[in-house]
Amino acid sequence: MKSISHVTTPDSREDPCTFLVHGGRDPQRFAGLVNTPVHRGSTILAPDLETWRERSAGEPFGTYGRFGNPTTRSLEETVAHLEGGYRSIIFPSGLAACCHSLLAFLEGGDHVLMPRSVYGPVRAFTQRVLGRFAIEVEFYDPLAGGNIRDLMRSNTRVVYVESPGSWTFEVQDIPAIAEEAHAGGAIVVMDNSWASPLYFKPFEHGVDVSVQAATKYLVGHSDALLGVATARESVWPQLQHGAHDLGQTAGPDDLYLALRGIRTLDVRLRRHWENGVMLAESLLDQPLVKRVLHPALPQDPGHIIWRRDFTGASGLFGVELHQMDDKVLRALFSRLKLFGIGLSWGGFESLILPYDKPAPGKDGGPLLRIHAGLESASDLIADMNEALAFAAASA
């Protein structure tokens, strides 16, 4: 396991964990309040006609609630700084951020490359929606690296990456992919939710638009749905217009919860990382387990690239089981006490979900997606070991 250290935040000498505490706050602007208040409202009044004309002719912020308020701007500026990008824009969910980051740069007749390991709802969006706009979607091997050049076409506008990949946790060679994408005139859009802005700096590796499912680690308490997309300066206007043209916005109370969660992001992610690695290591020798899918483990195929490009890991990983009768899988889930069965991840609680199909290209049994929460690692390990033993006995 890597030693847990921090990288200097872009454009600042502050350690990121210091910025997490102080970034996006201006207490003197709000009567000394430590936190940026929740601003609710749709109509924003201008003091005079000249001011209204100035606002209307420039940046839409400050003209209408849909374009944001001080609470919105506080979160956007904080995330943009952490990611190392130019500007960020908020969406009502992580999926909305992913989908609209694609729509902003695609039009009829375009070609987009998507990794086969992409997040399921994004895959469904590209198959069910983009096709209606005559946009051709092609799925590629997430381990293609620089060989993605062989798939580039004259009309390829976006190369989408997600590292590690959903469910199967392949680590993509982002710099190599970005180099070939840019050479072919395409931009790179990345889902960076797994590592968060703390453990992967997308713009240092060639990404043009970075998407965060803020629902996950940024909020961190399983009580708000949010997405954030951050862009480098050259593509920011197109991303911003794409979001505004489709009326994307988010409620102020959810924004406030994300700002609250960010203050403890560093502390929480350290615990998720440590718990996830210890839990994953404990599963390596379990009889029912065929393979553990966690890039922070030295034996993982993606470990070398993870060590090169990432500064940490999160609590989310996968497990491929041996082929088994469904009653064995049901027995395993029935015995777990500390792992909830539910969608999402990134909150304080541990979760587990089954994917009742073999891993793509594999002939093994079902996949499990596990999120190690903030509980004691020894308790999580004991709970999982007991459930696996019970399941093995039921076979």
Structure description:
This protein is α/β, with parallel strands linked by helices. It has two domains: about 15-260, Aspartate Aminotransferase, domain 2, CATH 3.40.640.10; about 265-395, Aspartate Aminotransferase, domain 1 (Alpha-Beta Complex), CATH 3.90.1150. The protein is about 35% helix and about 15% strand. The protein contains 13 helices and twelve strands. The strands form two sheets. A seven-stranded mixed β-sheet has the order 1-7-6-5-4-2-3, sandwiched between helices. Helix 3 (about 70-85) runs parallel beside helix 9, helix 10 packs parallel to helix 13 (about 375-395) and helix 12 (about 325-335) packs antiparallel against helix 13 (about 375-395). The radius of gyration is 22 Å and the shape is globular.
Provide the fold topology.
Elements: H1 16-22, H2 49-57, H3 70-83, E1 87-91, H4 94-103, E2 111-115, H5 120-128, E3 136-140, E4 156-162, H6 174-183, E5 187-191, H7 196-199, E6 209-212, E7 227-231, H8 236-245, H9 252-262, H10 265-282, E8 289-293, H11 303-309, E9 316-321, H12 326-335, E10 339-341, E11 350-355, E12 367-371, H13 377-394
Parallel strand pairs: 2-3, 2-4, 4-5, 5-6, 10-11
Antiparallel strand pairs: 1-7, 6-7, 8-9, 9-12, 11-12
Question: What are the defining features of this structure?
Answer:
single chain; Aspartate Aminotransferase, domain 2; Aspartate Aminotransferase, domain 1; 2 domains; 5-stranded mixed beta sheet; 13 helices; globular
